[in-house]
């Protein structure tokens, strides 16, 4: 740890009450592409700052999905608890709206305890709703959702696509015929709203709750370093029992390939492998390809993001010092 990090560690150790008195309320975002080391970086940051971590990862919400999502270990979670991890079964869905309200509750509780909420993860849509607020949306119906799931299972995505194309050609232009999740949501909205104009106008910001956000992106200077990290992570997953993990999940009732949990990178491909749709070499290739694509997509989001401070994921000590310096200059600490 560099001198500045050591300084802040000592400073917070002995002057915590004084710091808490003068620090204005704020939150930290630590975003970045998959396999760049966001979780380990945040866990180490806990040694220096009075933070509590809120996960921003649509895969980590699921119980029993540990290896394929690179979830923090039980030991890590025991020592540094993460909010919004292990809150859903793989058979359940979890909307952006649910995340928004859960995050709002966690921020309130963390700040009440006098700590700093730190959002850590790579689900960029979650960050977007935190920044821009929650858009108005019709109330969901569990009965309707179950009906749509049955339609998907029995008649497939093409049937829903054709149905929506007749009902709302403007809306369906945004959806690929094989994108089961977007088709699911489009059909749900079209039924709930009844009129397409309500869907198209469903963009008004309804609610915000965050002020004083200091945003950081942990990224590698060299993309080849990131791709190598992805390759190593994939190898570790496969050697750590990822196949058995997915077999166990598939043994549960009501698990099928159209669930959001089974669309997570790695799980979608392993599902295909276990149902004899691809062989082992194709499995490895497809997971690697999908993960690299995910990282590229995350980087595209990050490059277009405003008000970001960049941290070098290949030099965690320097990244920590940079973060602390920014917080100090912004008079947060």
From TrEMBL:
The record marks 123, 145 as: Interaction with substrate tRNA. Its EC number is 2.5.1.75. This is tRNA dimethylallyltransferase. It comes from the Bacteria. It catalyses: adenosine(37) in tRNA + dimethylallyl diphosphate = N(6)-dimethylallyladenosine(37) in tRNA + diphosphate. It is an enzyme of class 2 (transferase). Substrate binds at residues 34-39. One of its GO terms (biological process) is tRNA modification. ATP binds at residues 32-39. The gene is miaA.
């Amino acid at each position: 740890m560099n001198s500045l990090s050591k300084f802040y560690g000592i400073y917070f150790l002995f002057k915590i009450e004084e710091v808490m008195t003068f620090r204005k309320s704020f939150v930290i975002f630590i975003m970045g592409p998959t396999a760049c080391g966001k979780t380990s970086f945040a866990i180490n940051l806990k040694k220096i700052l009075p933070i509590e971590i809120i996960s921003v990862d649509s895969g980590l919400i699921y119980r029993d999905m540990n290896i394929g999502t690179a979830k923090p270990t039980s030991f890590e979670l025991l020592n540094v608890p993460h909010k919004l991890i292990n809150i859903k079964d793989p058979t359940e869905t979890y909307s952006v709206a649910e995340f928004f309200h859960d995050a709002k509750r966690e921020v309130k509780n963390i700040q009440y305890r006098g700590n700093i909420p730190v959002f850590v993860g790579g689900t960029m849509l979650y960050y977007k709703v935190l920044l821009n607020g929650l858009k108005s949306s019709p109330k969901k119906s569990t009965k309707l959702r179950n009906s749509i799931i049955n339609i998907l299972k029995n008649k497939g995505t093409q049937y829903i696509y054709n149905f929506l194309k007749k009902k709302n050609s403007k809306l369906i232009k945004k959806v690929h015929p094989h994108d089961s999740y977007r088709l699911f949501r489009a059909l749900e909205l079209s039924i709930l709203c009844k009129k397409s104009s309500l869907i198209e106008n469903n963009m008004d910001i309804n609610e915000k709750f965050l002020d004083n956000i200091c945003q950081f992106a942990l990224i590698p200077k060299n993309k080849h370093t990131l791709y190598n990290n992805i390759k190593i992570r994939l190898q570790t997953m496969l050697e750590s029992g990822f196949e058995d993990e997915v077999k166990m999940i598939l043994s549960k009732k009501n698990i099928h390939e159209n669930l959001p949990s089974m669309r997570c990178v790695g799980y979608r491909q392993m599902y295909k492998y276990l149902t004899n749709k691809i062989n082992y070499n194709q499995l490895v290739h497809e997971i690697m390809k999908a993960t690299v694509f995910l990282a590229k997509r995350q980087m595209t989001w990050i490059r277009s993001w405003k008000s970001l401070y960049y941290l070098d994921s290949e030099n965690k000590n320097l990244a920590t010092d940079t973060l602390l310096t920014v917080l100090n200059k912004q008079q947060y600490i």
